[in-house]
Design brief:
By secondary structure, this protein is of the alpha+beta class. It folds into 2 domains: 18-197 and 310-392, Zn peptidases (Aminopeptidase); 199-308, Alpha-Beta Plaits (2-Layer Sandwich), CATH 3.30.70.360. The chain contains 11 helices and 18 strands. The strands form 4 sheets. It has a 6-stranded mixed β-sheet with strand order 1-2-6-3-7-16, sandwiched between helices. A 5-stranded antiparallel β-sheet has the order 10-11-12-9-13. Strands 4-5-18-17 form a 4-stranded antiparallel β-sheet. A hairpin with a 2-residue loop joins strand 10 (238-241) and strand 11. Helix 9 (318-329) packs across helix 11. The longest helix has 22 residues, at 275-296. The model has no long low-confidence stretch (mean pLDDT 94). The structure holds zinc ion. Zinc ion (ZN) binds at residues 98, 128-129, 161, 185.
Length: 399
């Protein structure tokens, strides 16, 4: 009997906390709708950058600046950086999202229902990553309005993420004091916490043969396309193991039907959560290309470049613990996950800032069927606010 009394006393309290709504849903949705109206394909982030820089000032940032990323990268617009004082003596936290979107975005027509926001299907929506920007801004507003304990916050909204994390790469990371943070950018459900992403290498291989008339004297030629084909078929592609994928994405070569082609270029990638595995695959692939070129009496130019380093956070890191507690406070189960792609988080982690990636409530990214699921978007707002309160309650060096 007594146990039931306790349950009846505690349950409403528990449910009350779980259902307590902190973020202003209407305001967050309104901001999202404003953001998606601003066209901001990669290299065209100046307008959205100005918009969010002004907004960061309005909501009380102590410092806001737009950097000169475009001088280094071309295009217009720079990374937007802002600093907010905390109300708790906790270590600073980085919050990051990206300003650019993939194409097509021009002439966006929004359809909003009770449960979702999408487009008419002729353009993408841009929830990747405008939902992330709206979540970060609303979380900061909520913390301040409700006088919740809040760590010092550093915001970085990057340009050219979709072009290979370029904005984050050129951003002056010495400005950042944060040693951990949230990158709010990704598909997934509330409760998903992305703690791992792979090392990524891009390669470009050019096989060089010799051209000749294909009908008159083919024996004088060395066919570069045939070389490429032999090399490609000697290597394994696709999902190689649980941690690793490989892809040939582009092949270009040849001028005409009746000419033995003297050049063939192959572009592709390797990804793995195990960095050593990627390096050994690259060595194997290079070896195959060289062997084939030699067999044909041709040449090969091989180049490979690391796009980003793998991330693997452990469940005991403060940023992961805080996110897990936030998820649990909503009555959800934390789901620590790895993703196959990279985010700006990979760049910040390489700089020593441990970044957890939070989903935004969007689905079908990079496609015209992209949509924002409002219930998930709102839940992510609550999770972000609660995780920041958790981090504020950590004692630390402060600032
Ligand atoms: Zn994104």
């Amino acid at each position: 009997m007594r146990r039931w009394v306790v349950v009846w006393l505690v349950l409403p309290l528990l449910l009350g906390f779980q259902q307590q709504q902190l973020v202003n849903r209407e305001r967050m949705t309104e901001l999202f709708l404003q953001l998606v109206q601003i066209d901001s394909g990669s290299e065209n982030e100046a307008e959205i950058g100005r918009f969010v820089a002004d907004l960061l000032k309005q909501i009380g940032a102590d410092e806001v600046l737009v950097d000169n990323a475009s001088e280094k990268l071309g295009g217009t617009g720079g990374n937007v950086f802002a600093r907010f004082k905390g109300t708790a003596p906790a270590p600073p936290v980085l919050l990051s999202a990206h300003l650019d979107t993939v194409a097509p975005t021009r002439g966006i027509r929004i359809i909003k229902t009770e449960t979702e926001i999408k487009t008419d299907g002729t353009t993408i929506l841009g929830a990747d990553n405008k939902a992330g920007i709206a979540l970060i801004i609303e979380a900061i507003r909520t913390l301040r309005e409700h006088n919740l304990p809040c760590p010092p916050i550093e915001v970085v909204f990057t340009v050219r993420e979709e072009k290979g994390l370029l904005g984050a790469k050129v951003f002056d990371k010495t400005k950042l004091r944060a040693r951990y943070g949230f990158v709010v950018d990704g598909a997934g459900k509330p409760g998903d916490l992305i703690v791992g992403s792979p090392t990524h290498f891009r390669f470009e291989v050019t096989f060089i043969g010799k051209s000749a008339h294909a009908g008159v004297e083919p024996e004088k030629g060395i066919n570069a396309i045939v070389m490429a084909a032999e090399a490609i078929s000697a290597m394994k592609w696709g999902r190689l193991d649980e941690d690793t994928t490989a892809n040939v994405g582009v092949i270009e070569g040849g001028q005409a039907m009746n000419v033995v082609p003297d050049k063939c270029k192959v572009v592709g990638e390797f990804r793995s959560h195990d960095p050593k595995r990627v390096e050994s695959l690259l060595a194997e692939w290079k070896d195959i290309c060289e062997r084939v070129a030699q067999k044909f009496g041709g040449k090969v130019e091989f180049s490979a470049e690391k796009s980003f380093d793998a991330v693997q956070l452990s469940p005991d890191e403060p940023i992961v613990k805080a996110a897990m507690k936030a998820v649990e406070s909503l009555g959800l189960k934390p789901n620590l996950k790895r993703m196959g792609g990279g985010t700006d988080g990979n760049v910040f982690v390489a700089h020593g800032i441990r970044c957890l990636v939070l989903p935004t409530g969007g689905e079908n990214y990079h496609s015209p069927s992209e949509r924002l699921v409002l219930a998930d978007f709102y839940a992510m707002g609550e999770i972000l606010v609660r995780a920041l309160v958790e981090l504020a309650e950590k004692s630390g060096s402060g600032q």
